[in-house]
What does this fold into?
Amino acid sequence: MAEQKKILGDERRALILQLLKDSPVPLTGSELASRTNVSRQVIVGDITLLKARDEPIIATSQGYLYFKQNTGAPTFERTIACRHTPDDTVKELNLLVDHGVLVKDVKVEHAVYGDLTASIMVSNRQEVKQFMDNILTTKATLLSELTGGIHLHTIAAPTVQTLDKAEEALKEAGFLIEY
It folds into this structure.
């Protein structure tokens, strides 16, 4: 059986971009590496170069995603402030996605580094489970653990009312910091 040829440079990055654009789900670095016959580390470099060219690629806990702007109904966004223990992270995220909200990111203010932001991009319970499985498998620390549980989320939904209902659910659960 013949060994597959590596796809080089610009041709590989064009293929990666097309694969991401065509995929309805995030693609891992390992998947992209397998499809282009290079290492995962080469893919990381390619993604960095594509981002430097202003391609809207985001890294999520599920893999890389080409961020397609929804040309249909408008999307409304809001930043919310929350506080809870690490054990309540699943409950918080599930409350949000169960109300039809996309949790785009988490932000904390670090004493040394300033604002730290990480992409989450979860919109259903399966994605929440994948996110939390990745946290557990990699033994990563939640950003909110750096700040005593205080953190911000950017959330998005098709209507302001959806955002309002999700925020009310967080308030009832005792997770919302009101200001």
Remarks:
- The chain is about 40% helix and 25% strand.
- The chain has two domains: 9-66, 76-173.
